[in-house]
Amino acid sequence: MKTLIPLFLLTSLLAAPLPAADAKLNELTDAEKKAGWQLLFDGQSLDGWRTYKAGGTIGKGWVIEDGILKKLAKVSGGDLMTVKPVEGDFELSWEWRIAQNGNNGLKYFITEERKGTLGHEYQMLDDAGHPDGKIGPHRQTASLYDVLPPKADKPLKPVGEWNHSRVLVLGNHVEHWLNGAKVLEYELGSDALKTAVAKSKFSKIADFGTKVRGHILLTDHNDECWFRIVKLRTPSAK
After folding, report:
1. Separation of alpha carbons 169 and 188, rounded Å
2. What is the mean pLDDT of each run of 10 residues along the chain (238 residues)?
3. Rounded to the nearest 5°, which phi and psi values hold at 57?
4. How many helices (H) and strands (E) would you count in the chain?
5. β partners of residue 50
6. I want to staple 148 with a disulfide (CB 3.0 to 4.6 A). Which of 16, 101, 144, 164 is the partner?
7. Other Cβ atoms closer than 10 A to 85
8. CA gap 203, 222 in Å, rounded
9. Strand partners, 163
């Protein structure tokens, strides 16, 4: 049986161009708007974001400097979650950089029904300097954290430089991209994923590894990390 690919994602599967060098920070081009992209971070405020705990206050550990969202080291900010959940298929794109020995992550499929920030995490790490990097590739940058490793030859930039990452969800198919290269892909609900989840810290979460309606979340690991040009597109956005 052939898989029908939605038009809004067809170009993503064929190629994954990096952001244009002359693109304005946190602004969408006319072509991006036409393609259905929406900014999740406007570079000026945290409108559209909230704490995981409903009614909570975003801590002082999150600051905005020159259009960049920065997580301060050793200053509590709390995990930062989108107000709106993502419906169905989506493509998520963002740029980030990490401090030396730093750790952070972007999570998706975050649902409040789990009573905790337990979702699929695209790991962002100083692979060489942080202890998690020494545990194994399933804890390193671009992994599905603690579950599946990325390709060994992933094009990770040196600590302190900007990386461009993408997560693509199409049906039960998921891809992690790093700096223009697809470095990991897996199938939600597959036997292979179930086996990997069973060996991870998420083994007791009944629906982990299946497709759920959930939010996007930026983690607070108390290490310095920077984000910019965070954007999303879904079939309903066009």
Report:
1. 10
2. 49 49 78 94 96 91 97 95 95 97 97 92 97 97 98 96 98 98 98 98 95 96 96 81
3. -105, 130
4. 4, 13
5. 81
6. 144
7. 15
8. 26
9. 96
Q: The tokens 């030396």 sit on which residue?
A: 100
- In the block, which residue shows the tokens 């409040």? 112
Strand, coil or helix: 49: strand
Residue 54 near residue 213 (C-beta atoms within 8 A): no
**Tokens at residue 180, please?**
């223009």
CA atoms lying within 13 Å on the CB side of residue 220: 20
Residue 13 confidence (pLDDT): 46
pTM here is 0.91
Angle 219-67-162 (CA atoms, 0-180°, nearest 5)?
A: 65
Q: In terms of DSSP bridges, do strands 215-218 and 62-65 run parallel, antiparallel, or are they unpaired?
A: unpaired
- Residue 15 is predicted with a pLDDT of 46
Contacts of 191 (CB under 8 A, 6+ apart): none
